[in-house]
Amino acid sequence: MCNLKNFDVIVIGGGHAGTEAAMASSRMGCKTLLLTQKITDLGTLSCNPAIGGIGKSHLVKEIDALGGIMAEVIDYAGIQFRILNSKKGPAVRSTRAQADRVLYHKHVKKRLQTQKNLLILEEEVKDLIFKNYTVTGVLTKNEVKFYSRTVVLATGTFLDGRIHIGLSSYSAGRMGDKSSMDLSIRLRELSLRVNRLKTGTPPRIDINTINFNDLFIQHGDVPTPVFSFMGNVLQHPKQIPCYLTHTNEKTHEIIRNNLDQSPIYTGFLKGLGPRYCPSIEDKIVRFPDRKAHQIFLEPEGLSSVKIYPNGISTSLPLEVQERIVRSIKGLEKSKIISPGYAIEYDFFDPKDLKLTLESKLIKGLFFAGQINGTTGYEEAASQGLLAGLNAALYTMNTDSWFPRRDQAYLGVLIDDLTTQGTQEPYRMFTSRAEYRLILREDNADLRLTNIGRKLGLINDTRWIRYNEKVLNITNETNRLKRIKIDPLSSDANVLNQLWNIHLIKETSVIELLKRPEITYKKLKSLNIFQEGIYDLEAIEQIENEIKYEGYIKRQSEEISRQIKNEHTFLSSIQDYKKIKGLSNEAVMKLNDYKPLSIGQASRISGITPACISILLIYLKKES
Ligand code: FAD
């Protein structure tokens, strides 16, 4: 055995969950060790080189508001930025950026390697060390023991990972990486619930063999969006376009004729895949009437020759993949650089986790990322941040922290996972959040930075800028409330002439801003308005809060009612069998899910309002 080493927090895995976990705990002052298979793989984008998108970008902005690195990194690595749903309301507007894979990794690595309190070692963990159902350290393949009161497991798709291409399969964590077999075997020996999921990726195509001439070109947005609250467009590298093409009848025929060589349709691959990101085989089988499916040809980087054909994830044999690709417009002469494949891996039932992502069974052991049944870099990173900060709080013997559903998409994510579990890879959507108008991308900083600062995650520079913004919002909102326009004034005339607004009584400028057609910028043409402010983020905030005031107020009232339920705890109940009046189904589910609160119990499918009343009566009697 080698020498022993002690840390406050040990993180296993340098993917998106592991890197955010390690950064969070070390920023909070904890001596942190990150153990990962390869340092050259820190923050690797295993599949699509893109960050954000609908629902996911909300998570990225929340990570940023809590001092995490994902938004900052993509600002330095994004080669095409767009705002999706830009014509819809602010609740569902989402930022998405295409990433340069190499730059992304470089900026993750730079941040980790310059972070105080953080040591990164290239070691594969093969076992965990426990004492009385409490984790005390880890053992690596090189027989080195590291000790710590907390361990964050963030091993992604690597636990008993198995790649499938056609009817052949082999053990791997992802293409080019070994799977984590020893650890998988050891974890399966614990009394944790474990199951299999799958995901897939398309073949990568040589850019020099594509004919882009007749393809639809898609440029990024101008002005170019920025992800981080602290970011700016000058950080972005050169911006380049993506291209659009489609599958066709010939492509579909090739796929249909080769389903007998698909590991999914021949039953070789049993784990369920992501419903919202299906393979091209799945799309052809599930939607037989569709004549074409979109394919976005996305560059993997400024100096990469690889193109990622977004939309044709497949695990058919390589020879069939080649025929599929060449049947597509623009790709007739193209060459595949690396094949598409599916991967099946172990995941642990997230119902066995607390809302802090600590295991309910093993003290000090936290789970984050794909290992909890999610899919996506953003879902993984946000869980990593939460697990890392709670591991730090645990070692400090301080109260844990997790966001509620009305505070953050991260709150929705952890509540969904720990309350409902998941049968298929879970990805975030705006539709999963019931308080969408409150959980906007644009106000993530206002929702979370204060909390992040108290937790020790926010540095002084960000804190100063944040307070400036808050002050700008408050002062300017108050000023707008004070400016009143007389119906007989020249400004009233301007309103009438430019926007057909007829004032019949004295009206404040803030009331005018409630009208959908009136923007802050337009109001600047009124004499009485004077100069105003130039802080664009503060202006966006003022506009959204005023325009949606009525809806936001209603959601806030609903949240106040719900909070009472979230604070009515059920932790005193060990066995629901002893509560009279509950149905057998309710007893079984409540014993299985062990909800933390009445709020959480009410979100379990099959737990009716009648069950909730019985629980409330029981709690009242007990108190
Ligand atoms: P990962 O990024 O997988 O990182 C795990 C890390 O743990 C790795 O660095 C690994 O080296 C390390 N590790 C593992 N075991 C050990 C050990 N025993 N000791 C030390 N280190 C260890 N997401 C999407 O949103 N859309 C998609 O279409 C999509 N398709 C995908 C296709 C494929 C083939 C794969 C592999 C993934 C895909 N994903 C997709 C998922 C996305 O890559 C993951 O959700 C995300 O990377 C998960 O992050 P993570 O940090 O949990 O794990």
UniProtKB/TrEMBL annotation:
Keywords: Cytoplasm, FAD, Flavoprotein, NAD, tRNA processing. PROSITE patterns: GIDA_1, GIDA_2. Coiled coil: none annotated. The keyword Coiled coil does not apply. FAD binds at G13, G14, G15, H16, A17, G18, V125, S180, Q370. It holds the Pfam family GIDA. The keyword Transport does not apply. NAD(+) binds at residues 273-287. One of its GO terms (cellular component) is cytosol. InterPro entries: FAD/NAD-bd_sf (IPR036188), GIDA_C_N (IPR049312), MnmG (IPR004416), MnmG-rel (IPR002218), MnmG-rel_CS (IPR020595), MnmG_C (IPR026904), MnmG_C_subdom (IPR047001), MnmG_C_subdom_sf (IPR044920). It is found in: Cytoplasm. One of its GO terms (biological process) is tRNA methylation. GO terms for molecular function: flavin adenine dinucleotide binding. Homodimer. Heterotetramer of two MnmE and two MnmG subunits. Belongs to the MnmG family. NCBIfam families: mnmG_gidA. NAD-binding protein involved in the addition of a carboxymethylaminomethyl (cmnm) group at the wobble position (U34) of certain tRNAs, forming tRNA-cmnm(5)s(2)U34. PANTHER family: GLUCOSE INHIBITED DIVISION PROTEIN A (PTHR11806), PROTEIN MTO1 HOMOLOG, MITOCHONDRIAL (PTHR11806:SF0). This is tRNA uridine 5-carboxymethylaminomethyl modification enzyme MnmG. It comes from Buchnera aphidicola (Brachycaudus cardui). The gene is mnmG.
